[in-house]
Amino acid sequence: MEEAKRKAKAVVVGGSIAGISCAHALIAAGWDVVVLEKTPSPPTSSTTGAGLGIDPLSQKLIQSWLKQPQLLEFNTLPLTIDHEQATDWDKKITWTLTRDENFNFRAAHWADLHSLLYNALPQGVVLWGHFFLSFCVSSAKSVKVTTKVLQSGDTIDIEGDLLVAADGCLSSIRKTFLPDLKLRYSGYCAWRGVLDFSENENSETILQLKKAFPALGICNYFILGVGTHSILYQLFNKRMNWIWYNNQPEPDLERNSVTTKVSRDMIEEMYEAAEKVWIPEFVKLMRETKEPFLNAIYDSEPLERVFWDNVVLIGDAAHPISPHGARSTNMSILDAAVLGKCLEKWGLENLNSALEEFQSIRQPVNAEQVLFSRRMGRIKQGLVLPDREPFDPRTASQEDCVKLQLRNIPFFSDIPYILM
């Protein structure tokens, strides 16, 4: 009886969008929440980051967590069109492969979405500058998390009823339970950048870019070459988000990061290579972007389980995924919402049942989406698949092109029953 009355407490490790979303969903379920995040302070709009697409269900969930739901629309742009086009550099021509005009995503900058969600939380929920060290589960079903306060160097313990690992694709908490799980390198990396053109919106670069890609502002452009592809869409506050996927050997990465440091020489080489693949308007955008960065693309084999006792994985910790289904952020938001509803339904006294139901709802969906995204990436990069010839946009059939649309991902518009 005592346990039923006491307010349950969750400790969330990781203060990115998955962790912040989880805080919202669990607070809505009546839990106390503390989020531990190693970065010293909340990210600002100038933080290095990139664009992401928010699907209709995630939009509704985010709005339910905001005190002013309209802020989501004010800080994002519509992506009503998913447009796949091909480019032939030799002939200097582009043509449409397929176009979906009922796409209904919204484009956000990572830092903008994070700020919206973070600023809507009660003060003191997120402990910045707290580096996760270890955890232990006691026989009394509580979990003790040990963390280092980076500013003072002190080590402190925080107790809770549930530990939520929202610590990303390189999750150290996951490693405790799955020490042999290895991330799988995709065979390619992504050059990424965001150009802020707010002070020069009538520049030749922007005018030419909008001429070449007339639906910028409402459209997600996928541009396919032979054995490579890129992405282009506009963000709120006059910014252009671009990505170029490049087949290459696995790079040397710094520990605990999938982003590699790039030298000026590497950037110059990238520009020169781009000039042999993409139309001049796109290359000019790349050249004018400050600090482009390089992401190595990884995923993993789908996990069979995502909880052990009172420790549960969510977001990229539970399902490292490549970016080709526009799923990573959307999966994290949905994980958080479903976990919150399961905890609310079952209560602390039935924590195991809540986590069982969470796993049964999310794991099959996440597994299929991880594998679909992997396949989509290999197709668009012209890589070998056991059941088909490498994709070539110059000779692809209409049927093959329609398969490139993002809405083909399994469970594209599915709403879990617990959120109904």
Explain what this protein looks like in three dimensions.
The structure is a single chain. This protein is α+β, with helices and mostly antiparallel strands and about 425 residues long. It has helices at about 1-5, 15-30, 55-65, 70-75, 110-120, 170-175, 205-210, 265-275, 280-290, 330-345, 350-380, 400, and strands at about 10-15, 30-35, 50-55, 75-80, 80-90, 95-100, 105-110, 125-130, 130-135, 145-150, 155-160, 160-165, 185-195, 220-225, 230-235, 240-245, 260, 295-300, 305-310, 310-315. Strands 6-5-14-15-16-13-18-17 form an 8-stranded mixed beta sheet, with helices on both faces. Helix 2 runs parallel beside helix 10, helix 3 packs across helix 10 (about 330-345) and helix 7 (about 205-210) packs across helix 9 (about 280-290). The longest helix has 30 residues, at about 350-380. It is globular. The two termini are about 30 Å apart. The model has no long low-confidence stretch (mean pLDDT about 95).
Number of E-type strands = 20
Q: Compute the separation of the termini in Å.
A: 30 Å
Largest sheet: 8 strands, mixed
Mean pLDDT: 95
Name the strands of the widest sheet in spatial order: 6-5-14-15-16-13-18-17
Strand content: 25-35%
Indicate the structural class: alpha+beta
Count of DSSP H/I helices: 12
